[in-house]
Specification:
- With about 110 residues, this protein is mainly β.
- The chain has one domain.
- Helices cover about 15% and strands about 45% of the residues.
- The chain has 1 helix and 7 strands; from the N terminus they run αβββββββ.
- It has a 4-stranded antiparallel sheet with strand order 2-1-5-6, with no helix packed on it. The chain has a 3-stranded antiparallel sheet with strand order 3-4-7, covered by helices on one side.
Length: about 110
């Protein structure tokens, strides 16, 4: 089990990295993250995980989404998920990423 203070540090770092980041859709379309929030609710089955909700504006004519990658403001990879979503005429795209924090042994 990871110390609560360390998990809070990881959350703060993740929030800072996502701010100004992008979502890479289907490996070819990059859209800026408009909003990001970390859930304070526990995640069933994962005691050391962080639930991150990310929102971006939809792109007109966007085909079915099959892969979403979250990248920081420098373009560095944070998380990836496979999806099967037809965004249709949605105004926003919203995705949840579950990120498990792991600590080193002593």
């Amino acid at each position: 089990m990871i110390e609560q203070s360390y998990l809070e540090t990881v959350r703060d770092d993740l929030q800072a990295r996502v701010t100004g980041g992008t979502l890479l859709l289907n490996e070819s379309i990059s859209v800026p993250v408009q909003a990001a929030a970390i859930s304070s609710h526990p995640i069933t089955g994962l005691s050391d995980a962080i639930a991150l909700q990310v929102q971006a504006n939809n792109i007109a004519g966007l085909p079915v989404l099959t892969k979403v990658e979250l990248r920081d403001s420098d373009g560095k990879f944070i998380a990836r998920k496979s999806v099967n979503i037809d965004p249709g005429g949605a105004q926003f795209l919203s995705f949840s990423f579950i990120i498990e924090a792991k600590g080193g042994g002593s």
